[in-house]
Fold this sequence. Notes:
CATH class of the largest domain: Alpha Beta
Number of domains: 5
Structural class: mainly alpha
Radius of gyration: 32 Å
Low-confidence stretches: 1-14, 24-84, 525-531, 571-584, 716-739, 780-784, 830-834, 865-873, 900-937
Amino acid sequence: MTTTKVEKDMKVVTDAHEVQVANLIAEVKPWPSSVPDHVFQEDTSMNINYGSAHNIAMGQNNFQGNAKQITSAGGTLNYHEDNQITINNLVQVYITECPRDDPRIRNTKEADARACLTALFLTNAKDDRENLILMKGSIVEGTCEWIKTDALYKLWRCSDTQLLWLSGGSGKGRTMLSIFLAEELEKIKGVSFLQYFCDNKDEKRNTAVNIIRSLIFQLTRLQPNLIDHILPAFEIQRESLFSSSSFRTLWRIFEAMVTDSVNTIYCIVDDLDECDETSLKMLLENLKALFVTKLSKAPACCLKLIIVSRDLPRFIPDTLLNFPRIRLDVNIDIYRVIEFKVDELAVAKQYPDRLRVYVKEVFRERAQDTLLWVGIVADLLRGCESTEVEQALERFPPGLEEVCARMLRQIPNDRQLRAAEILRWVILAVRPLTLSELSAAVNPPPSIVHSRDEVMRGMVKYCGYFLNIQEDKVGIFHQSAKDYLLRTTPDSNPTLELFRIKKEQGNIDLTQKCLGLIEEHALAFCKVSHTKYPPLLSYAILYWPEHAKSLAESEFFFDLSLPFYEKKSPFHLPRLFKQKCWINKLNKKNGNGQTALHYAAEQGHEEIVRLLLENGAGMKVKNRYGERALHCAARQGQKTVVQLLLEKGADTDLKSGVGETALHYAAYCGDRELVGLLLQKGADTMAKNFSGETVLHYAALGGFEAVVGLLLEKGVDIKAKTKSGDGAALSSDVMEGIATEINAKNASGATALRYAIQCGNNELVRLLLENGADINSETNSKTGRGKTALHRAVKSIGDGELVQLLLEYGADSNAKTSSGCTALHLLAGEERISRDSFVEEKFQILVENGVNIEAKTDSGLTALHWLLLEKGVDVEAKDSYGWTAMNFAVAAAGQEAVGILRRMLGPNTSEWTLYHGRFETEKIRAHWTKIHWERRR
C-alpha cells in the first residue's frame, strides 16, 4: 500500500481531536480502507503546491518521484542544452578528481554523489525559462537593450558591486527583462551562470529552500568538485537535507560553494516576490548578511546577483534599501513594443496608414508605461475588423486595473455567478486544478453530447482573458489579475464587487466543499463504487487543512457531530498524520520505511507521539535509513519530543543505518540544549558512525562553537569521574583519551579541526586548539594528499587571521602534502591570484613566519607571485620538464599574471620573456594537466 504526500502543519488539530484520537486508535485497526490507493496519488505531471510547511517525509517521496522521472531514460537528466549533461556524467567528472588509491572510499563517494544529486534536483531552470517564453512570447527585437547601457548595470558588471535590484510594478516587463539578461549573461566566457524563475503556483519554484536547491544543483553541474560541500551533510541527513526545514544547512552549503568557486558567479533570480513570504524573508536576510558583512571582506570570491521583483511585500524594499536599484516603473521599451504590436495588427487586419498612426497614439496615451496593457488590448483588437477599431478603442480605459474591470463587466449577466465561482476556485486553490477537478468543484450542468471536461472548458471561457488552459490545467494569466481580484477595498459597482474575492469567505466555501466530498465518498464505508470517486477527492483529502487553517473562525468546522468527526471514521486518524489509511497497525511503513511515529516525531507533535506510544507504536522501528523515532526527532531539533521519547525509554546509543546516534544529529543541528539533554541521559560522546566520524566531527562541520565546547567539557567530566572517582583530578591517561577524541579521524582522515577550518569559524578553531587538537595532523592522509590545517586555511576565502592563528599555535609553515606542496604553493595556485583579495596579506604572514620561499614540489615546482619576487625568489628555477614558475603562472592566470609580472619585472620586459616556453605547450600538456589538478587540490 503506497502513501500520500505528507503535510507538516497539523495546527488545525484541537484538543477535541486528541480526545477522539485516543479512543479512535484502538478501534480503527481492523477496518478495511474505503478509499483505494489511486485516490491518494497526485498526477505526477502536475505541479502540486504542498504548502511552505511540507515535511521531510513528503520531500523524500517527491525526490523519489523525481528520481523516477530522471532515470526513466537510463538515469539521465534530459537537458535542452548544447552541452547536455547527465547526473551519471556529472558524478563521473566528480569521481575523476577523487583519489584512486582507496577503492572503497571512491565507490562510497560515487554512490553518495549520485544519490545526493538525484535527491537535490527539482526542475531544470533553463527549461523553466523556455516555458516562460512559450507562454509570454518571444522578446520583441530591440527591447531590453537599454539595460546594457544603464549606468548601474554597467557598474554591477565591471566593479565589486555584488547585488543589483531590478524592481517594477505589474505588467512592467520584469520577466522579459530577466530572460533577456539571462540570455546575455550565459554568453560570457569564463564565468558560472545561475538562473531561477519563481512561480507562486509551482511548489518546486516558490520557496527559499527550493531556490537554494536549484542554485546548488546548477553550481555542481558547472563545477563538479563543489559536490564536496554537500556530501558531508547528505551523509548525515540523506534526503531530509533537502526538506523545507533545512534552509539553514542548505544556506551554509551554498555560502561555502560560492566562496570556493573557481569562477565568478553571475546569478539572476526573477519574480522573487512570488516566493512564499515566510521563507522569502529568511532568504533576503541571509543574502543581505552575505553581501554586507561577509563577501564585502573578500569581494573577489564573487557572487554577482540580480534580483528582479515587485516592491511588495513591503519587507523587500526595506531589506534591499542599501543596494543599487534600477526602477522599471518608467518603461523604456514601451514605445518599441507598441510599434511592433500595432504594426503586426495593421498587417493582419489591413489597417489604413491613418488608422495605424491613430492606434499607436491611443496606445501611448493609455498604456501608462504598462506592457501588459499593450498585450491585452492588442489581443482583444484582433477580434475586431479595421472598421470597428476606433469604436472598440473607446471602450478600453487607461491603466491595467481599469482594463481588468472592463473585462469583468463584459461578462454576460447570466454567466457572472458561474464565472465568479470559477475564478474563486482558480485563485484560491493551493495548486493548479485540472479541468476535471474544476468541473467537480463547480459542478457544471450535464450534457448528453459533450463530456464534463468539454463543458468545463467552455465555461472557463466565460472568464475571458483572466484564465488560460495549459496541458489541461487552468491558471490565471498574470499575477496582476490575481492581485486585482483579491483587492481588499470594496467596490461600489455591484458587478465588480461580485467578482472581488473575499479571501476568508472563499476559503470557507472551499473547505466546506472539500469536507463534503470527504464525507460523501471517503467515509462511505465501501458503499460507493471506487470508480465513481470525483477527481477532486484527492485534492480535498490532501489540502482541506490549507484552506481551513487560514480562517479566523476555523472552529466553525470542528463540530464533532459532523460525519467527518464520527468516532468510527476510517479517515480521521490518517488525515491527522496527512497519510492514507494506515489502519491495519500503527507500525505500518510507507515506501521509505516511515511509520506514523516517525512523522509525528519529526514534526514535533508531542501529544500525537504520546498517543501513539501509549497505544503500542514501536520506538525501535527503523525507517529505510535505519533511523528510529528518536533519530528523527533529534535530526529536526524537536526537544520536547526527544524528552518524551527518552522518558519512555528510548536508547540514546542506538545507531542509524550509517552508524549515527541521536547525539550525532543533535550536534549537527547546533542545538546546545538538545545536546545537553541527550548527554544528561548518558549519550556516548565517543560514538562513531561507520565512516569513523564522532559527534565532535558533526558539531565542527556545522561550525557550532557552543556545542563543541559542551562536548569537550562533558568529555572531560565523564573521563575524570571514570578515572578518579570524584572528578577532582585528571590523570595522564584521561588527558590522552581527550586528545584521542579531539583528534579522531574519519575514513577520509578528516578531523574536527579540518571541519572547523572549512566552516571558517576562527573561534571554533581556537577552541579546538586550546583543547589539544593536533595542528599538524595530515587531515586527509588516507587519501594520500597529506594536507595540514595550514594548507586548508590558506585556500579558504577571507583575510589572513586564520592563517596567523594557526601559525601562533605552532603550525609548520613548511609542511608538505604528499606531492610536496607547501602552503605557499597552494596560495600561489592559479585561481588564488585572480580571486582572493587577501593573497598578499597571507603571503606576508607566511614569509614572516619562516616559510621556505624556494621550496619545490615533487615535480620541481616553486611558488610564484609578485610578493615572492620582492623576497628574492629565483625566477629562472626550472622543473624537470624545463618550465619556469613564470611559465606556469602565465599559463594558469593569463593576462592577470602578465600584468603582475610586468609590474614586478619592469616595463621593458618583452613579450618573449613573459611567454617563453609557450611553443613547448603541446609537448608537455599532459604534465601541465597533472600540475593543474595538483594545485587545485
